[in-house]
Amino acid sequence: MSAQTDDIDRIMSVMECAFPPEYGEAWNRRQVVDALIVGNCRYGLIGEDGTNDLQPGTKTAGFFMGRSILDEEELLLFAIAPQYRRRGLAHQLLSTFIEQSRTNGMARIFLEMRRDNPAGYLYAAHGFTEIGVRPAYYRTSAGNRIDAISQELILND
Questions:
Q1: Given a cut of 60, is residue 114 above it in pLDDT?
Q2: Rounded distance between C-alpha atoms, residue 77 and residue 23, angstroms
Q3: Residue 109 to residues 21, 42, 82, 89, 132: CA-CA distances in angstroms?
Q4: Helix/strand/coil for 18
């Protein structure tokens, strides 16, 4: 379990700095561990140099977590640490997630994000399209309500 524990530490190091606290989107360590125990969840990491096979001492720039059910996958979490943004790492990591989903026989990928999430541009660039809105779904720490946007990417046309 050592490698997985190290990877969870890496995920948490990015989680702690990548998600703005006012939205309450970051998961805690227990949520991450519990999701990975279930067995239908997977994750991927990317290092500051763009590698996906992180060696000890390599700084973690980002991660994804996904959950599959039958031939559908949901992108649960996706983050790049602020100091590594605008280097193409998010595109590379999302491409890896999409390609792995395709290789695993998934027909589509779903994700949900708050309306004002700047990652919306990244998802659109990779072919995700809006399929629904959950009005006032998210609540900020200040009590403001923000719509959730549901998106999908069809993998096998």
A1: yes
A2: 14
A3: 26, 14, 25, 20, 14
A4: helix
Question: Cα(first)–Cα(last) distance of the chain, in Å?
Answer: 39
**Three state DSSP letters for 26-42:** CCCHHHHHHHHHHCCEE
| pLDDT per position as a tens digit, 27-84 | 999 999 999 998 799 999 999 989 888 877 789 999 999 999 999 999 999 999 999 9
What residues form DSSP beta bridges with 114?
Answer: 148
Which of 30, 6, 5, 25 shows the shortest CA–CA distance to 15? 25
Question: Residue for token digits 């280097």?
Answer: 87
User: In Å, what is the CA distance from 22 to each residue of 70, 106, 112, 139?
Assistant: 34, 33, 18, 9
The pLDDT of 13-35, averaged and rounded, is 91
Mean pLDDT of the chain: 91
Confidence of residue 2 (pLDDT cuts 50, 70, 90): very low
Strand partners, 134: 148
